[in-house]
Design brief:
Helix content is 36%, strand content 20%. α4 (59-80) runs parallel beside α6. It folds into two domains: 43-242, Neutral Protease, domain 2 (Orthogonal Bundle); 251-397, Galactose-binding domain-like (Jelly Rolls, Sandwich). The chain is α+β, with helices and mostly antiparallel strands. The strands form three sheets. A five-stranded antiparallel beta sheet has the order 5-12-9-14-7. Strands 6-8-13-10-11 form a five-stranded antiparallel beta sheet, with no helix packed on it. Strands 1-2-4-3 form a four-stranded mixed beta sheet. The chain has twelve helices and 14 strands. The longest helix has 28 residues, at 2-29. The structure holds calcium ion and zinc ion. The site of calcium ion has 8 residues, from β14.
């Protein structure tokens, strides 16, 4: 035991002597390999911000700009710059006379912000996040507005640090008549956030649309096609969902669309309106997604079917046969139930918001009917996209 204590004492003494020596002689004995070079900050490496420009913004705004840039630029460039690589950004103080009529803008790798704007809006620091998002985007001309500004606003919302002080936020629903074709900055940002959250984690909408836009040519029409190809939803349908207007959700197959219910089997076609060319209302019940019923809606889009026994309709499931260019959605439509095929009860009043454009996909509408019926009748009084309505199947889930 004594030996062990002695050894510990010796070891401690040696350690103390060693520490004392290294402390005393540190500068003389440290080799270059052992030197811990301070890692340059993100601001030092990637932000070009002249003393003159810093003076124009004043010390507080300058410090906050640097704080935000330090904390966000690596992530913003990782997700949104070409190749995910950060690069140097120049931050300039814009004079009153230069540039567009805006508090800030970006071009190439340079961002301009007006010191006068910051004096009047000292908490609008995250305008820098919006503008450096544009520096990362670099799409070139003709990219759809909802992508250019929607991504930049989404980035500001996602990574901004002072938004709550401004206060600044994205809408969870677009105001009034805003559409994806004419959204305004923040509604566009709210849309990108909605779509990104909706598809996450299977698909990062914001990152993928940004990547695609960097390849060029993603104008409004092309963005319609891209969104549909990538998500199975049309841009219009997604916007409607963002706006809370569409209650019909798109499903890959009929059973998923039935949800917690079961598709009622063996429907018996009774009668229907006159189909266009070779389409026939009976095609709605043949279990074949490639056959459809198309009709001019003045009085022809109606169909009647029945079941051997009465069923309670919990969900109405149908599939579109239109295309993006000819969606042929139902407009105002109604579903009726009957037990004798003569005395009809309206059980659901449908509108365009209960439909969507997604050819080959299924939609479901919840019907709060507790009465059982043997006969059903679907009528579309008009078309949402012109004189035709075209569906490939209809079904009741119970
Ligand atoms: Ca069919
Ligand atoms: Zn912008």
């Amino acid at each position: 035991m004594k030996k062990i204590l002695l050894l510990i004492a010796v070891a401690l003494t040696l350690t103390l002597v060693f520490m004392a020596c290294t402390t005393d002689t540190e500068e003389a004995t440290t080799t270059p390999e052992e030197t811990q070079e301070p890692v340059p900050s993100v601001v030092e490496r990637y932000l070009i911000f002249s003393e003159e420009c810093q003076a124009a913004f004043g010390p507080q705004t300058t410090a906050r700009f640097k704080e935000v840039f330090e904390a966000t630029w690596l992530e913003i460039s990782y997700y949104f710059a070409r190749g995910g690589r950060p690069f140097q950004v120049t931050l300039r103080a814009a004079s009153e006379s230069e540039g567009p009529n805006a508090p800030g803008w970006a071009s190439g790798t340079t961002t301009w912000i007006r010191p006068s704007w910051m004096r009047n809006n000292p908490n609008d620091i995250d305008i820098l996040v919006h503008e450096i998002a544009h520096n990362a985007q670099q799409y070139g001309g003709n990219t759809a507005f909802w992508i250019v500004e929607g991504i930049a606003e989404y980035v500001r919302d996602r990574w901004g640090m002072f938004n709550h002080l401004q206060p600044w936020s994205l809408p969870s629903r677009p105001p009034g008549n805003a559409t994806y074709a004419d959204p305004g900055h923040r509604p566009a940002g709210g849309f990108v956030r909605f779509a990104t959250e909706y598809f996450y984690p299977d698909f990062n909408f914001a990152v993928e649309v940004n990547r695609r836009a960097q390849q060029g040519g993603l104008n409004l029409n092309a963005s319609r096609e891209w969104v549909f190809e990538q998500t199975g939803y049309s841009l219009a349908t997604l916007w409607d969902m963002y706006a809370g207007r569409t209650v019909a959700i798109v499903y890959d197959n009929q059973n998923d669309a039935a949800g917690d219910y079961t598709i009622v089997q063996n429907p018996i076609f009774v009668d229907g309106g006159t189909g266009w060319e070779n389409t026939d209302a009976a095609n709605l019940f043949d279990g074949d997604a490639d056959t459809s019923f198309a009709a001019v809606v003045d009085s022809n889009f109606w169909v009647e079917w029945r079941y051997e026994t009465a069923v309670v309709a919990n969900r109405f499931v149908f599939s579109s046969a239109g295309t993006l260019t000819n969606p042929r959605r139902m407009g105002n439509w109604r579903l009726y139930g009957s037990n004798d095929g003569g005395d009809w009860n309206e059980i659901f009043l449908g509108a365009v918001r209960h439909t969507a454009i997604a050819p080959g996909r299924y939609f479901a509408v919840d019907i709060n009917s507790d009465e059982a019926f043997r006969y059903f009748r679907l009528v579309s009084l008009n078309g949402a996209d012109g004189q035709f309505v075209q569906l490939s199947s209809v079904a009741i889930a119970s």
